[in-house]
Write a structure and sequence with these properties.
This protein is an all-beta fold. 0% of the residues lie in helices and 50% in strands.
């Protein structure tokens, strides 16, 4: 069955960095675009970044441009989100999304606080 398993979240100080990973299984990973979303308390889930199947094209929310980088390793069936210069407003649960039916992972908590 399809599984998307996120990891790499945690508590980090403002200005710090984290790298999230999403390991996929159960579908032909390289054939599908993958995305990262986030949901902060009391807010709607929002798209953070997306990458095409071959990794040749990416797009980002304006709020993270220049700070976050999405990438993928199709040999490892994994998509990454490198997050630099983190701000308190980046605090949220981060979700991986993709596959033939736009599956969701379980989410990983990112907290940016001093």
């Amino acid at each position: 069955q399809v599984q998307l398993v996120e990891s790499g979240g945690g508590l980090v100080q403002p200005g710090g960095s984290l790298r999230l990973s999403c390991a996929a299984s159960g579908f032909t990973f390289s054939s599908y675009a993958m995305s990262w979303y986030r949901q902060a308390p009391g807010k709607e889930r929002e798209l953070v970044a997306a990458i095409t199947g071959a990794g040749g094209s990416t797009n980002y929310a304006d709020s993270v441009k220049g700070r976050f980088t999405i990438s993928r390793d199709n040999a490892k069936n994994t998509v990454y989100l490198q997050m630099n210069s983190l701000k308190p407003e980046d605090t949220a649960v981060y979700y991986c999304n993709g596959g033939p039916r736009y599956y969701w992972g379980q989410g990983t908590q990112v907290t940016v606080s001093s």
